[in-house]
Amino acid sequence: MDNSATSAEPAQDGNVNECVALVQSQQQMLMTLLQEQQRLQSELVRQNQEMRQQQQQQQTSRASVRNVPSSSLSSKATYDMSMQQWRIWRRDIVQFAEMCGWDVKTTVMNIRLQCDEKLKRVIEAEFGDRWIELTADQALTAVESILRKASNPAREKEKFHKLNQQPGETGKAFVHRCEQQALECDMACPHCSKDLSEWCIRDRVLAGLHSDQLKIDLYQNIDKYQTLASLVEKIDIFEAASAGCSVLAHVDADGEPESSEPADDGEAAVAALKSAYKRGKSKSHQKAKGTCRSWKDS
Questions:
Q1: Cβ-proximal residues to 202 (8 Å cutoff; 6+ apart), any chain
Q2: How does 100-114 read in b/e, with b if 16+ C-beta sit within 10 Å?
Q3: C-alpha distances in angstroms, 156 versus 159, 174, 187, 293?
Q4: Could you give the CA distance from residue 202 to residue 193 in angstroms, rounded to a whole number?
Q5: Where does this protein have compositionally biased stretches of type Low complexity (predicted)?
Q6: What is the rounded CA–CA span in Å between residue 88 and residue 19?
Q7: Which of 6, 105, 107, 119 has the fewest CB atoms lying closer than 10 Å?
Q8: Closest CA to 176 of 236, 219, 127
Q9: Domain contains 95
């Protein structure tokens, strides 16, 4: 009995050791699985964070153009654009920025991005990294300053003073053409900065009208047409009357229509009246004398 009990004890110890080893193995396996689960959870958290960041970046990048069709984007500002084209471009970019809900920084960045390569190079040379620190108004003023430096006011004034009414062109169309060209010129007095645009346009229209008969009438009664509006009204009346006369014009005995223009001395009469008008300019500007040196020699 004692021998059998003694032999059974090692067998029991072996079974216990096997059980302990099995339990330890299972515990190790569970620890490994737990660690892998924790690693996967951490990886999922990291991926979720990255996805949220990407979504935020995409929302930020799309914020400037949300609810706005791409066709509404303004055309690019060019280095050689005229001041008239610049004013239209400036209005468009300001309105587009309001439609998009751009903040100041986004607006300033887009002003530069909407310039052609030559303008961008000038902006980079003058401002560099300081560009992003400007307000929207400062950025637009800076671009306008660059364009004004690139323009040639003397050449634009020369074009203005060469304007003449073309055959078949209405008086209103001619006046509008003069007004548009005047926008490209500096019509301010160099001494008192008074805007002389209307005065210059009126004189150019007077000089450039196609009809000698109308010119004679205007120069003879110039005191009645001191404003551009009164001049345009007179031109409209004359053209309407001329159109009516052309419809009702009768043919003389030789079968040739009578001319509504003065005969051979028409141009000479216009030249004489124009000269008298120039000599009399000082009378219409007496009030300006003493206030601006521009009128001293009038």
A1: 225, 227, 228, 231
A2: bebeeebbbebbbeb
A3: 5, 17, 11, 25
A4: 19
A5: 46-59
A6: 90
A7: 6
A8: 236
A9: yes
Number of domains in the chain: 2
Q: Residue by residue, what is the 3-state secondary structure of the chain?
A: CHHHHHHHHHHHHHHHHHHHHHHHHHHHHHHHHHHHHHHHHHHHHHHHHHHHHHHHHHHHHHHCCCCCCHHHCCCCECCCCCHHHHHHHHHHHHHHHHHHCCCHHHHHHHHHHCECHHHHHHHHHHCHHHHHHCCHHHHHHHHHHHHHHHCCHHHHHHHHHCCCCCCCCCHHHHHHHHHHHHCCCCCECCCCCCECHHHHHHHHHHHHCCCHHHHHHHHHCHHHCCCHHHHHHHHHHHHHHHHHHHHHCCECCCCCECCCCCCCCHHHHHHHHHHHHHHCHHHHCHHHCCCCHHHCCC
More confident call, 84 vs 233 = 233
CB 151, CB 111: distance < 8 Å: no
Give the range of the structural domain holding residue 171, as residue numbers without chain letter. Answer: 153-249+267-277
Task: Assess if residue 197 is contained within a domain.
Answer: yes
Last residue of one domain, picked from the residues 131, 150, 169? 150
Beta-carbon contacts of 193 under 8 Å, excluding residues fewer than 6 positions away, are none
The model's pLDDT over 124-173, given as tens digits with 9 standing for 90+, comes to: 999 999 999 999 999 999 998 888 776 677 777 888 899 999 999 999 99
Which residues fall within 8 angstroms of residue 63, CB to CB, at 6 or more apart? 101, 106
HSE-up of 257 (CA within 13 Å, CB side)? 9
- Which two three-digit tokens encode residue 43? 């990886």
